[in-house]
Each structure stands twice: as structure tokens, then as C-alpha cells.
Amino acid sequence: MFDRGDRWIQQIEQNYALLAGALEHVYNTAQNETAVTSEWMQTELMRVAGAAQKFTNDIWAPIIQRDQEKANEDLNRNTWVLRLKDAIQFPQVASQQRLEE
User: Fold this and answer.
1) What is the DSSP string of 24-56?
2) How far is the C-alpha of 88 from the C-alpha of 101, rounded, in Å?
3) Residue 74: what pLDDT?
């Protein structure tokens, strides 16, 4: 399905590592420092939330794109099949109408 050597997969892994590092930093700082202010915590959590959103978007964007491409391929294939069926039926229907006249 997806190749681990693909640039997209590598980017996801890198973003995941950054996100995990940021979460670990916030957690460790909050555990070890008594002088952590709520403003600092809020700022850091907002950064982590932004990184999490980017991570999620990076994961879903190619999946959605691939699904859209597959849907377009299916639509084009189905349209082609319908046109082919119409082309095959046309002479038969025309012949039958000539016989009925």
C-alpha cells in the first residue's frame, strides 16, 4: 500500500518524532520544575496541539488524494463501460427497429 522509503512516510515519521519529543519535553518540565507557570504550560500545549494537527493532516492528505484518484478512475472506467455497452447495443436496437417497421 505505502512504501516505507517514500518521502511522505519519512516526513510522517519525522513529524511524529518531533511531536513525541515536544510532549515529552512538556511532561518532563512540568514534573521537574516547580516554577512552571500556567502561561508557559498553555503556550507549550498550544505548540504541541499545532504539531498534532499538522501530523494528522500530513497523514490524511495523501490518503484522501489516493481515494479521490481511485474514485475518478472508477468513474472513468464505469463511463467507458457504459459507452461500450451503448455502442454494442446500438446496432442491435437499430436492426430490431428496422425489422419492426
Assistant:
1) HHHHHHHHH-TT--HHHHHHHHHHHHHHHHHHH
2) 21
3) 95
Tell me what percent of the residues of the chain surpass a pLDDT of 70: 98
Q: Where exactly are the structural domains of the chain?
A: 7-100
Query: What is the distance between the alpha carbons of residues 44 and 69, in angstroms, rounded to a whole number?
Result: 38
Q: How far apart are CA 76 and CA 62, in angstroms?
A: 21
- Helices 38-100, 7-32: axis angle to 10 degrees equals 150
Cell of 84: 461500450
- Are the C-beta atoms of 16 and 22 separated by less than 8 Å? no
Q: Residue 6 pLDDT > 90, yes or no? A: no
| Residue, of 77 and 48, whose pLDDT is higher | 77
